[in-house]
Amino acid sequence: MALAAGIVFGLGLIVSQMVNPAKILNFLDVFGSWDPSLALVMVGAIPVAAAGYALTGRMRRPLAAPKFRLPQQTRLDRELLLGAALFGIGWGAVGYCPGPAIVSLGMGQPAAVPFVLAMLAGMGIYELVQLITRRKSISEA
Amino acid sequence: MIGLAALLLALFNGRVAGISGIIGGGLRAPPDDLGWRLAFLAGLVLAPLIYRTTVGIIGPITVTSSSAILVLGGLLVGFGTRLGNGCTSGHGVCGIARLSPRSLAATAIFMLSAAATVFVLRHVIGG
Questions:
Q1: Which of A54, A58, A76, B107 has the least C-beta neighbours within 10 A?
Q2: Structural contact between residues A115 and B73, judged by C-beta atoms closer than 8 angstroms
Q3: Residue A95 sits in which domain range?
């Protein structure tokens, strides 16, 4: 079912033109050639997703997995805010966020290749930093 | 459709459809937690093929960024989404749908910083 969800998600990104970086950049270009139509993607997706999460609240376990593992954190911390700000800079520079970048690989879009490789490297760097800081805090303790 | 995909993943797998988390979390996930991630990502990669065989040609795609910007942007997106625990799908769609205060804040911040980046690149430097 995760495969089907991925396909439906990917088709949604194609139909909504989220896979076109120029469209994304025009959506973000509030002071220039602003194209607000992508806001409709969120407006359309959020209520459907919300209905799904409302249903999960009534279920004891998922239909195909032993338990629900939805995010539980509620605290606003520095990592969240800094991470979101950095992600926004990268998104605004290119016009790809992770989902559309992966779908673009499947489209054979050449620009997606260096972007996705760099994105994986960025995620790897994060894991490394985590590893080093964790080790440091253990040795200091 | 994106909402529907999030609904399917929640009901069947009990997980949030956040792309950066599905990829990044896979970097250190135990083997029994890898299957659904790979299946979902395979679906994303297969979607264009299915679109082309059933619907037709995918609309025009324009990428204007240089290779250096593509790499720099990719690094920032990769690192930032892991540090901030989410991207457009995880925070922007699923998080807001779950009324998560963290996701509301994150979405506001990445929208602002993305718009500011476009403004600087297009109107300050490129203007």
A1: A58
A2: yes
A3: 2-140
* Single pTM value for the model: 0.94
The encoded tokens of residue B10 equal: 């929640």
- Number of domains, chain A: 1
Q: What is the mean pLDDT of residues B105-127?
A: 92
**Residues from chain B contacting residue A69 (CB–CB below 8 Å):** 14-15
With CA atoms as reference, the chain A residue closest to B115 would be: A28
Percentages (nearest 5) of helix, strand, coil residues in chain A? 70, 0, 30
Q: Which amino acid is at A24?
A: I
Tokens of A85: 């700000």
A128 reaches B (C-beta below 8 A): no
Half-sphere exposure of B68 (CA within 13 A, CB side): 0
Percent of chain A with pLDDT over 90: 84
Res B57 pLDDT > 90: yes
Instruction: Give me B108's structure tokens.
Output: 């506001």
3-state DSSP call for residue B57?
Answer: coil
